Amino acid sequence: TVPAYSWMWSHHDVVHHHYRRYSKNQINDLFRDAGFEIEYSTYFNTFLFLPAYLKRLSEKFLGDKKSDSPIDEVPEFLNKIFTSIFNLENSFLPTVSFPFGLSILTVAKKINRK
């Protein structure tokens, strides 16, 4: 799994030690170039994309607090809602390929060349 969309880059990525964000085509091309066959690939964290996008947008215009904590504290009830949404989306994997999301999930198999 890798983070998606370079335009979504924020302080969150710095705190999590990300080096870049990818499109699904970019990461899959890297796998193929390294001799892998893509078995399954999808964006995920799709259902939480809008709240995350709005948070990033507000940080851009209102300023980011630049916390070094890898997790933003949210009220317990909101955390439970987000967790339920994330778990609901996981129930669709690997039968669905989402067209967008905060992250990319790719399953690849090394091609044995003789």
Describe this structure in words.
- With 114 residues, the protein is of the alpha+beta class.
- Helices cover 39% and strands 17% of the residues.
- The protein has 4 helices and 3 strands.
- The protein has a 3-stranded antiparallel sheet with strand order 1-3-2, with helices on one face.
- It starts with a strand and ends with a strand.
Task: Describe the secondary structure blueprint for this structure.
Layout lengths: L1 E2 L7 H5 L8 H10 L2 E9 L4 H14 L13 H15 L12 E8 L4
Tell me the β content. Answer: 15-25%
Average pLDDT number: 88
Principal-axes shape call: globular
Report the sheet with the most strands, covering strand number, pairing sense and barrel closure: 3 strands, antiparallel
Kindly name the structural category: alpha+beta
Keywords summarizing the entry:
single chain; 114 residues; alpha+beta; three-stranded antiparallel β-sheet; 39% helix; globular
Give the gist of this structure:
The chain is an alpha+beta fold and 114 residues long. Helix content is 39%, strand content 17%.
